[in-house]
Design brief:
This protein has about 375 residues and is α/β, with parallel strands linked by helices. The protein is built from twelve helices and twelve strands.
């Protein structure tokens, strides 16, 4: 208990220090024509989850270490939903993003990103941090497994497909759909914690390192749903049908957990990303500095160690790595021919999506498809142009 009280106070300190060294979204410099929001590694802007999330706490610590060690000016631009975070990348307000699955969806013009205003975004991964997620309930709850969510209040976050698809997977793990539960709209990721504590929802789909969830754990106590065993292929196929990039993995750090007693979570990439047209030299130097400054942030949060060189993933998963990152990987024995082949295939896949988008746009114009009808039209017709 004392350990997590100290950790919660540490998170508050990290957030305070980050706020002192960051600018608000309104102060950030960016180009409206979509050019990168940074022309130098010395002054960068980063789009990320809102204050109270583990993603914000982790990257705040990274930013503080980079500022201390290298004199960098780093603007942290939080947003409570995936569209908001990706918009800052798209319009150039932020050069980089510590993003959830919205970067995956945006690269293929899926979910909220299939409107005419979006289209496939040419995204690249910079640093492949992995993370863990599951459904958290109050400790005295009678909800133990995903199947127990039937008839319960389950959160849905407008504009945050990254979390919503994980909720889909959680329901699938229990053989449920949204028809079997009570959908509750929640304004942001971090606000799930308060909603859980106030009884507005019965489960919160969160990362165990989220500061807001740790606070609830200290006050009331939380526990995690028991996911199907990793050997249950049928159950995990159902989970991955909803979110293909999650895998089963044990985890023991964060709210409701203790070292030496790991519990099963869904694991997935939670990386630092940027656009393909970001200067490779900026990306390469940023990667080098993240590694160089690791000792300065490794103990800042319970999950900061996932940023270590030996813990990140350099396996291309869904979206390719940036050429600047690859150059660093090659020079430091973190890359091989197999990864390069996978990366090249993903680059080609991205080009195919962009070409298919243009073809579907032309077809929509010929058939006089309205803007409101276009998202469904794109999803229904893209496959014929992707083959």
């Amino acid at each position: 208990m004392k350990k997590w009280i100290m950790y919660s106070l540490m998170c508050v300190g990290v957030l305070f220090l980050a706020a002192c060294s960051s600018t608000s979204g309104g102060d950030a410099k960016g180009e409206s024509d979509g050019e990168s929001g940074s022309s130098s590694v010395e002054d960068i802007s980063v789009s990320l989850y809102d204050v109270g999330s583990s993603g914000y706490a982790e990257f705040s610590a990274v930013a503080n270490a980079l500022t201390k060690d290298h004199g960098m000016k780093i603007s942290l631009l939080p947003s409570g939903n995936g569209v908001g975070r990706m918009t800052m990348i798209k319009d150039g307000t932020a050069a980089f993003g510590r993003l959830g699955d919205e970067y995956q969806f945006a690269s293929r013009a899926e979910e909220e990103f299939n409107t005419k205003e979006w289209g496939p975004q040419d995204m690249r991964v910079v640093w492949g941090v992995m993370t863990h997620i599951n459904g958290a309930v109050l400790e005295d709850s009678d909800i133990v497994t995903p199947a127990d969510l039937e008839g319960k209040k389950v959160p849905h976050l407008p504009g945050n497909a990254s979390i919503n698809t994980k909720v889909d997977s959680l329901l699938a793990a229990g053989g449920l759909t949204w028809d079997d539960v009570k959908k509750v709209e929640i304004t942001s990721y971090a606000s799930q914690s308060d909603a859980l504590n106030q009884g507005k929802i019965d489960v919160a789909m969160m990362l165990p390192g989220a500061a807001s969830l740790i606070e609830i754990d200290e006050l009331e106590g939380i526990s995690w749903l028991e996911l199907p065993d990793a050997s249950d292929e049928e159950a995990w196929e159902a989970i991955q049908d909803e979110t293909p990039w999650v895998i089963p993995d044990e985890w023991e750090f964060g709210a409701g957990l203790s070292e030496g007693n790991p519990e099963l979570f869904m694991s997935y990439p939670y990386p630092l990303v940027t656009r393909a047209d970001t200067d490779p030299e900026i990306v390469k130097e940023l990667v080098a500095r993240i590694i160089d400054s690791y000792e300065g942030y490794q103990d800042a949060t319970a999950t900061s160690f996932t940023w270590a060189k030996e813990n990140v993933s350099t396996e291309p998963l869904g979206v390719p790595f940036h050429e600047g990152a690859i150059e660093y990987f090659e020079e430091n024995d973190m890359w091989d021919d197999e990864k390069q082949q996978l990366n090249d295939e993903l680059v080609e896949t991205g080009k195919n999506y962009q070409e298919a988008w243009e073809s579907v746009l032309e077809l929509a114009e010929e058939e006089e498809i309205s803007d409101s009808e276009f998202p469904e039209f794109w999803m229904d017709n893209r496959e014929q142009f992707l083959e």
